[in-house]
Design a protein that fits this description.
By secondary structure, the protein is an alpha/beta fold. It folds into two domains: 8-30 and 298-426, Lyase, Ornithine Decarboxylase, Chain A, domain 1 (Beta Barrel); 37-292, Alanine racemase (TIM Barrel), CATH 3.20.20.10. It contains twelve helices and 21 strands. The chain has helices spanning 21-28, 37-50, 70-78, 88-96, 113-121, 132-145, 185-193, 214-235, 261-278, 292-295, 329-333, 422-426; strands spanning 8-10, 13-16, 19-20, 32-36, 57-63, 82-85, 104-106, 126-129, 149-156, 178-179, 198-204, 241-243, 285-288, 299-310, 316-320, 339-341, 351-356, 365-372, 380-384, 404-409, 412-417. The strands form three sheets. Strands 4, 14, 15, 16, 17, 18, 19, 20 and 21 form a nine-stranded mixed β-sheet that branches. An eight-stranded parallel β-barrel has the order 5-6-7-8-9-11-12-13, surrounded by four helices. The protein has a three-stranded antiparallel β-sheet with strand order 1-2-3. Helix 5 (113-121) crosses helix 6 (132-145). The N and C termini lie far apart (52 Å). The structure holds pyridoxal-5'-phosphate. Residues 63, 66, 84, 107, 169, 206, 209, 245-248, 289-293 line the site of pyridoxal-5'-phosphate.
């Protein structure tokens, strides 16, 4: 397994943030999500420092769907990033964290009336409108509450990036946004522009996730700027801002080749600046919304091995005390991961295993075919790069308990989220007799 962030191997043991993971297992139990604070902070700084330009305001909004807790929102705020949310629950979490509401961007293809009312009540600064229907109901609500809000419209520029079908978001039949190619697109824009309670800042697009080609992002910039020019000519509307979403790919396993983000972010923002000058546009503010690329490498999941099994056909399993409930990505997207036996970190990986969870599903396999040292009950297995879309996609399937989340830095651990208890699990259930 590639060591990420502050991971170190010494005396056959793996540590993260200066803490032996065996100590974390003792303190907080397993399964356990571990967040490497230094790695998280480094990524925030990488984005903030490089997505900047002397003549354009660059803003980085962390896509909190990747991983969100009250503490996470506070760390993101401390690093000076903005935040994007996609539900009432995420919005409420950042509010509870004391996140400045003018730096919150509220997304979603089907925000409910209650969620829109909540956004107004909490004084959320920015809404990314998904479609014409939402534009209409939001306009009515803003007027009713006499509240003016910054808005963006999510558009679909029809870019097809190389990634898994389920995480592509701008194909022509995507459920997100309004296509820039549809006949009445100008009418939709005009209808938003004339709303008294909306400050129409610009357009948004997000071309997909886990993308490794720089060209896909630059093509999206080209398409969006071209469309800005058409809008300017057709409607005489000049937008101040542009939001290009997230999607930067990360390292999970061998074969993944993430973009070198530092130089690329500088290139990307300058590309936007030059393109907008060439087209005589007045864009002054550019946003991006990275999620996975901020938190994925900072997170890992630690499990205890319950035992091993060799099947009649010769397949060797390692059974762990979690599985698709704490990480549904392998089942959903055939996602690949690397792992290490943390208490045998320097031993030769000489046995081919499949890592299977404890859930009642044959598909509950986190890693197919990985070479590890010979495993036995009581070993600690750590899967790396699980910071994004794992905790946030957790399910209580089989009524298993949600693991705790521990934050580590400089040799000391802190709890970010406590482990669920069986009492938590039944606390919302009503007795019927
Ligand atoms: C609108 C929007 N912005 C940002 C993101 C974050 O993407 P990623 O985590 O790949 O950076 C997503 C992910 O689905 C999204 O839909």
């Amino acid at each position: 397994m590639r060591l990420l962030g502050s991971m170190k191997v010494e005396d056959n043991k793996l540590s993260i943030g200066g803490v032996d993971v065996a100590t974390l297992a003792k303190e907080y139990g397993t399964p356990l999500y571990i967040i490497d604070q230094e790695e998280l902070e480094d990524k925030c700084r990488l984005f903030k420092e490089n997505f900047s330009h002397p003549d354009l305001r660059g803003e980085v909004a962390y896509a909190s769907k990747a991983f969100l807790t009250v503490g996470m929102a506070q760390l993101i705020n401390k690093e000076g990033l903005s935040i994007d949310v996609v539900s009432g629950g995420e919005l409420y979490t950042v509010h509870k964290a004391g996140f400045p509401m003018d730096r919150v961007y509220f997304h979603g293809n089907n925000k409910t009336l209650e969620e829109l009312e909540l956004a107004i009540r909490l004084k959320c600064g920015n809404i990314i409108i998904d479609n014409r229907h939402e534009a209409k109901i939001l306009g009515e609500l803003l007027e009713k509450h006499d509240y003016k809000m910054n808005v963006f419209l999510r558009v679909n520029p029809g870019i097809s990036a190389e990634t898994h079908d389920y995480i592509k978001t701008t194909t022509d039949d995507s459920k997100f946004g309004e296509s820039i190619f549809q006949e009445d697109i100008y009418q939709i824009l005009r209808d938003i522009k004339v709303q008294d309670y909306m400050n129409f800042k610009g357009l948004h697009c997000h071309i997909g996730s886990q993308i490794f080609e720089e060209e896909s992002f630059l093509r999206a910039v080209d398409e969006m700027l071209y469309f800005y020019q058409l809008v300017k000519n057709e409607l005489d509307i000049e937008f101040e801002s542009i939001n290009l979403g997230g999607g930067f790919g990360v390292y999970y396993a061998e074969g993944d080749r993430p973009i070198d983000l530092g130089p690329f972010l500088q290139r990307m923002i300058d590309y936007i600046y030059q393109g907008s000058r060439r087209r005589e546009l007045t864009i002054r503010h550019v946003l991006i919304e990275p999620g996975r690329s901020i938190i994925s490498n900072a997170g890992s999941t630690l499990y205890t091995v319950g035992g091993t099994k060799e099947t009649y056909s010769g397949k060797k399993y390692i059974f762990i005390d979690g599985g698709m409930s704490d990480n549904p990505r392998p089942a959903l997207y055939q996602a690949k991961y690397e792992a290490i036996i943390a208490n045998k970190a320097e031993e030769a990986p000489d046995t081919l295993y499949t890592v299977a969870g404890k859930l009642c599903e044959s598909g509950d396999v986190l890693i197919e075919d990985i070479k590890l040292p010979r495993a036995e009950a009581g070993d600690l297995l750590l899967i790396s790069s699980t910071g994004a879309y794992t905790f946030s996609m957790f399910s209580n399937y089989n009524r298993v308990l949600r693991p705790a989340v521990a934050l580590v830095k400089g040799g000391s651990p802190r709890l970010m989220v406590r482990r669920q208890t069986y009492e938590d699990l039944v606390s919302l259930d009503e007795e019927l007799i």
